[in-house]
Amino acid sequence: MKKLSLLSLATLASMQFIDAQVISSKKWTDHFSYNNVLAMKEDNGKIVAATENGIFYYTIATGEMTKLSKANGLHDINISAFDYNPQTKIGVIGYANGSMDVITPQEIKYIVDIPIATGYNGSKRINHISITGDQAVISVGYGVSIFNINKKEFGDSAFFVNGGVYEASNEATIFGNKLYSVTNTGLKSHELNTTFPVFSTWTTEIPGSFKHIDAESSSLIFSSATAAFIYNNGTGTPLPATFGGIKDIVLSSNNIVVTDSRIYTFGLNGVSLNAVSMGEDCNTALTANGKVYGGTILSGIKDEGGTTYKPSGPYSNSSYKINLYDNNQMLISSGSRLNRYNQPGENPKKPGFYYFNGSEWIYPSYFIGKTFPINVLDAVMNPADNSEVFFTNYTVGAQGVYKMKYNPGNKDFDLSKYYDMGAPSIYYRRPVGFAFDNQNNIFVSVGFHDGSPSIGIYDKAADDFIIKKFGISSEGMQKPIFHENQLWIPIPRSNNFIVYDYKNPTNLSDDVDYILKDSNGFAGNSKGTLSVAFSKSGDAWIGTDSGLRIMSNAATEIKNPDPKVEPIIIEQNGLGEELFRDGQILQIEVDAGDYKWISVDGGGVYYLSSDGQQTIKHFTKENSPLPTNSVTDIKVDKKTGKVYFVTFNGIVAYQGDVADLTANFGHVVVYPNPVVYSNFKGKVTIKGLAEKTNIRITDAAGNVIHSAVARGGYYEWDLNNMKGNRVASGIYFVLMTNEDGSDKATAKIAVVN
């Protein structure tokens, strides 16, 4: 069989790794879950653990915890394999898409040979990694590859293929001068010689379906799903225990650890030493300092005494919407929907919602072990009583609004009441998202109301919801937005948008409904509206599944007989182009400077000027820590400028430059400063400015070399003078006044070319 040559995996042997652009910085933080531990290694009193979206290091003696993710060095998410060499301090991460990160004490290198391979079209998921010295054995759907860690390049590879059908290597390792691989048809081996790539020269030493394998200098162990064996010259000696579903086997210099429903420890001779239960399912386990540590699915690392160790993070990475509150509190919903919502149906783990109380993440015990359908699309605090949380359950069979009470004593939530919204059957009245007005009235959008969308209005006196049905044909609803005493509601399954002027919330007789459709300016090929946000001037920015529309002075325009929405036209090469034409606009958020954050399905997040004519930043999963290019929610903390991006694969936050603005200056900061060209070639940022700032930059002699007007609280200078040439090395003075000249600020910038 053909060898998995470097030409089929990449282009040239000299291009086996990528010096990938740095996609993380100090401005990014992750809010990933570190509960689901996939693999662990022990290194002289420190445990290195791999989870779905990152790894963390736990020092047993001190309790010190550090983490590494896409927010501070890694290049991807969805980790599927990991190994670490305690002698060299080098780790190798394998991802579900076939890429790898090689982590050394000096750097992190991104390896993309397998994802871009053209010689194999099957699954490229990294199933397993085993490091021996400077070599790592990589198990994939096609078979195995040898990766040279020092050179950062692939060597020989073997395609496990018979009659054109590939067989995956479940796991593999080097033992002596041979490589051993467990597959669904047997334990296979081959010497590390010139015929290694030829599959017909491989030996099936023991037929059977085997899942796991590990080796040390003098021992080799392997297992099926129900039995574990010590390898002995072509035969397997079974370990003396009955297993039901082996998750992992780990061989160290002094014992064998088998992870099943319990964690079993054996001597190297196979003698049973111990069996402990962690009280929950584990993916893997090891022993360190005389203790057993389990890598759990839901609680991070857990020792045999029941103590858990993990970085702070939510219960799960599955996330859909976020709501921010005072004192750094957050509520995260985990739901999802079919039809243009980027994920097929609900999360089978049914995680519900997660709560951050400002210092730690709390997960309601109510959701643990629940068997009925749970698909939470929104979770919010009651504005009149922040100890109460309302959440929507969208899924057929248990749909409705649920009210919970937070108990700070045990840091948990108790169910207070369930509202079925008067649903006549299990298929109707599925609540989606909440909105509040200035009087703390609670509203919830409801889909599937006998063929029409509706709004639930909370009647405080009756402690129940009044249902207001809208007269259009559509099953879908989105989360409403409150603006100017009206509810603005996107309709995702028809080309409509509803503005609900409810006047007196519990009196439906005086309501006025405004319904927008194609004739009001939406694209003819649109099948739904998805999002809405409002600029500081009161313009409605409406995201549809086929582009962006703006309604100027929306609260007044909507009352006209024929209100209009219009696209934003930008000039490209002298021609007018519609901004985001045909794009699905999942979410729109406006920051304190009136700049717009816009999520486009599959296109990442755009940061636009207040009028939408300029793209200031464009974040994607390729150039930033975003987990995916489909961001389902964006929220800006206007006090700090921090921007939260929510995806089905986790949450990351970016420290923006625009915080809450006033007509006067805040704390003016210039960075980087000094600007050393050899270290930094971007723009210098000046933040903490007034809402409108007049800027003059002079040289040491007082000559004005640059001037500008900044809006939104910050400004970026490209270090060019008014002729467009880069300024010389030296000290430059920034002279700033606010709009009416009543407040002033100065700064210095040192430039070293």
UniProtKB/TrEMBL annotation:
<feature type="domain" description="PorZ N-terminal beta-propeller">
    <location>
        <begin position="49"/>
        <end position="202"/>
    </location>
</feature>
<feature type="signal peptide">
    <location>
        <begin position="1"/>
        <end position="20"/>
    </location>
</feature>
<dbReference type="InterPro" id="IPR048954">
    <property type="entry name" value="PorZ_N"/>
</dbReference>
<keyword id="KW-0732">Signal</keyword>
<protein>
    <recommendedName>
        <fullName>PorZ N-terminal beta-propeller domain-containing protein</fullName>
    </recommendedName>
</protein>
<dbReference type="Pfam" id="PF21544">
    <property type="entry name" value="PorZ_N_b_propeller"/>
</dbReference>
<dbReference type="InterPro" id="IPR015943">
    <property type="entry name" value="WD40/YVTN_repeat-like_dom_sf"/>
</dbReference>
<dbReference type="InterPro" id="IPR026444">
    <property type="entry name" value="Secre_tail"/>
</dbReference>
